Amino acid sequence: MKLKSLYKTSISQAEQEEDLLRQALQKIAEIRNIKNERRIQARNAGNKESIRRGTWMKMLLSSAQTLPLFVGKIDEKPPPLCGAIPADPGYVAKVGDMVAALVKIPDGDGENWILAEVFSYNHTTNKYEVDDILAEQNQKGRHTLSKKGVVPLPLMRANPETDPSALFAQGTVVMALYPTTSCFYKGIVNKPPATHTDEYEILFEDATYPEGYSPPLYVAQRYVIAIKQKSKQT
Description:
Radius of gyration: 20 Å
Subcellular location: Nucleus
Keywords: Coiled coil, Nucleus, Transcription, Transcription regulation
Oligomer: single chain
Mean pLDDT: 84
GO cellular component, one term: SAGA complex
Protein name: SGF29 C-terminal domain-containing protein
Number of helices: 2
Strand content: 15-25%
Shape: globular
Order of helices and strands: HHEEEEEEEEEE
Organism: Tenebrio molitor (Yellow mealworm beetle)
Helix content: 10-25%
Low-confidence stretches: none
Structural class: alpha+beta
Distance between the termini: 71 Å
């Protein structure tokens, strides 16, 4: 009886610790949202950020590394926009969310998938207004696009040790953010993350290499999404 009582006490303590950890994770998520909302308010007030490209790249990497990790309960499945799980068909990205956006190349022929931030969404026209995250280096920083030209990025990381099905498997054709750039390109998953801190190992299509692919490059979960086929490719 004493052993049974100790066992129940241990279970109760473990459940309490789990609840505290979940509350802490929720607080962290709330702090991230508040910081993002303040940044958006400052931008709308006309306080433009002047950030160098190198600093932007570091910020994007940090943002991906600190993206909330999905920690589900027993038998709980990862939700949409966790890892490789796509958004629901009717989902609309929120103002300030990062997305992949298909935009026309300035002074060029064709289109590119770029990393952008949602500025607004018109429910009447079903169109987004998105800002190129490196707008100061482009001729047109804001773009008006239909929903099919916008892909929401993951809002949570998937844990390979508990939810491997929420990640792209080896050999999957994907779109991924090429390191040190703000553009998504077609590639193949050479190796998926093994732990929640790992990144994908991606082989990007690149005709300059004899094999037709780049050497393995590392890309965070947040910047790897399902391939989108378009009639025009660059």
